[in-house]
Design brief:
Elements (H helix, E strand, L loop, with lengths): L3 E3 L2 E3 L3 E6 L7 E7 L2 H18 L4 H17 L1 H12 L3 H23 L4 E4 L5 E9 L2 E5 L7 H12 L3 E5 L5 H12 L8 E3 L4 H10 L3 E7 L2 H13 L3 E5 L4 E5 L5 H13 L9 E7 H16 L19 H16 L3 E4 L3 E4 L5 E5 L2 E6 L14 E7 L2 H9 L6 E5 L3 H10 L4 E4 L19 E2 L9 H4 E9 L1
The structure holds nicotinamide-adenine-dinucleotide.
Nicotinamide-adenine-dinucleotide (NAD) binds next to helix 7 and helix 8.
Length: 479
């Protein structure tokens, strides 16, 4: 039984959840404690009590702890990557890459702890000085989704601790293993009791407790739009600081002058890798007339070579979908797209058992052509290996289609035209724009986030994370 970490102690939960391997549903990874609201209350109390001392800890103390955590994560990347692939279903190389990202994030924010910065300037009044500094916000509640079980927790926990906040972390129910492993590393890193707390449990129980408790000064949430709206409503009701990272319907434009190989590789990578379960996945391909048919033919040829199998098996390109309910959502959307007039050009087949006979949630990647902008497949997030194609007349039409979405997380263009690439970078209504690159797969040291219905509040990651995890103070002194 894997327990919750509350006030420096490992505690049993009120109930238990079973962590199942989506590549082989007979494989039980472990049983994990599920906290109730009373245990979440204990964690918030512990974090509240720890905050005054931790917020005044030295930058050296915070650097040493975060740097040690990063070093251990990087040293154990193969083992932690194996656990991640086993519980979430992305392939082993993808999972090891995600773990390495988490390690590097801890090291980046260890460095940030040493350079909080600030400004001094003269007042407009004679003899008065002004200092502008940043202070920790307080107790932060961190709520994360299942699709990046270690990287998203890392990119919230590391900056929170680096700038002197105390943390109550609630991971997604489907992937407690990576969250627990990260908490276990943090528990041995030298943090005072109560500074970091792991509270695994239901969103409707532990999550809601974090949203509604006045001792939680700020909430950082990544997940679906529907849950994000609940987070926002609860936070506004008690005027807590909050930040939301939610869904996407990310476009990738392919222009007539694109390098076909680059365009196909970028579209296959960001549409289907990690089983299409990335918020930055390109789920809408917008392809101009002159290259459309050649591009689709090359996509289908490439898709035929992709191996869908056990996430941890060497040679697997695409692992399983995360669970039965997400699988149903994926196949439902394929049906909706066909009923609306789309053509299933390739894939979308349910595979009950993999090459070794293990039962899992396997689905071959699906490409749906002949779709139009108003169809549900182009307006709603599927969150699986399902990509639709819209035909465009020219660049201007493609740009308008790409921005015709309630979301605005990432957007891409494949082109050899500097003019169109430059125009697109400026006029795309997305938070992250990629030229001749997949829309998914971003650096760990620069801001991450979107616009419109995809995000709310300050950016995550890089130095911009300070906007959320610190609060600014302006001090005046007359000598
Ligand atoms: P989800 O909204 O179902 O759950 C996210 C988290 O919220 C989980 O920990 C869940 O337990 C918790 N939760 C659920 N109900 C709650 C409530 N009432 N109060 C408080 N917390 C509650 O999302 P998911 O299915 O885990 O993740 C998939 C979604 O996440 C997709 O929409 C995807 O696009 C999005 N996502 C976005 C980003 C980004 O940075 N923009 C990154 C990854 C995933």
């Amino acid at each position: 039984m894997f327990k919750n970490l509350i006030n420096g102690e490992w505690l049993d939960g009120a109930s238990v959840s079973r962590n199942i391997n989506p590549s082989d549903t007979r494989d039980l990874i472990g049983e994990y404690a599920q906290a109730d609201a009373a245990q979440a209350d204990l964690a918030i109390a512990a974090a509240t009590a720890a905050f005054p001392a931790w917020s005044l800890s030295t930058p050296q103390q915070r650097f040493d702890i975060l740097d040690a955590v990063g070093t251990e994560i990087l040293a154990r990347r193969a083992e932690l990557g194996d656990l991640l692939a086993r519980e979430e279903g992305k392939t082993l190389p993808e999972a090891i890459g995600e773990v390495a990202r988490a390690g590097n994030i801890f090291k980046f924010f260890a460095g940030e702890a040493l350079r909080p910065g600030g400004e001094t300037m003269p007042s407009v009044r004679p003899g008065v000085g002004v200092e502008i500094t940043r202070e920790a916000v307080g107790v932060v509640g961190l709520i994360t989704p299942w699709n990046f079980p270690i990287a998203i927790p890392a990119w919230k926990i590391a900056p929170a601790l680096a700038w002197g906040n105390c943390v109550v972390f609630k991971p997604a129910d489907l992937v407690p293993g990576s969250a627990w492993a990260l908490a276990e590393i943090l528990s041995r890193a030298g943090l005072p009791a109560g500074v970091f707390n792991l509270v695994m449990g239901r969103g409707s129980v532990v999550g809601e407790k974090l949203l509604n408790d006045p001792r939680v000064a700020a909430i950082s949430f990544t997940g679906s739009v529907a849950t994000g709206q609940k987070v926002a409503a609860a936070a506004v009701a008690r005027m807590a600081k909050f930040q939301l990272e939610m869904g996407g319907k990310n476009p990738m434009i392919v222009l007539d002058d694109a390098d076909l190989g680059i365009a196909v590789n970028a579209a296959v990578n960001s549409g289907f890798f990690s089983t299409g379960q990335r918020c930055t996945a390109s789920s809408r391909l917008i392809v101009t007339d002159g290259i459309h048919d050649r591009f689709i033919a090359a996509m289908v040829e490439k898709m035929k070579t992709l191996k869908v199998d056990d996430a941890r098996k060497a040679g697997t390109d695409i692992g399983p979908v995360v669970d039965a309910s997400q699988l149903r959502q994926d196949t439902d959307y394929i049906g909706i797209a066909k009923a609306d007039g789309g053509t299933l050009a390739h894939g979308g087949e349910r595979i009950e058992t993999n090459a070794t006979g293990a039962p899992g949630f396997y689905l071959t990647p699906a490409l749906i052509t002949d779709t139009t902008a108003e169809m549900r497949i182009n307006r709603e997030e599927v969150f699986g290996p399902v990509v639709s194609v819209i035909r465009a007349r020219d660049y201007e039409h493609a740009l308008a289609l790409s921005n015709d979405t309630p979301f605005g997380l990432a957007a891409g263009i494949a082109t050899t035209s500097l003019k169109h690439a430059t125009h697109f970078k400026r006029h795309s209504q997305a938070g992250m724009v990629m030229v001749n690159l997949p829309t998914a797969g971003v650096d760990y040291h620069v801001p991450f986030g979107g616009r419109k219905g995809s995000s709310y509040g300050p950016r995550e990651q890089g130095r911009y994370a300070a906007e959320f995890y610190t609060t600014v103070k302006t001090a005046y002194t007359q000598a």
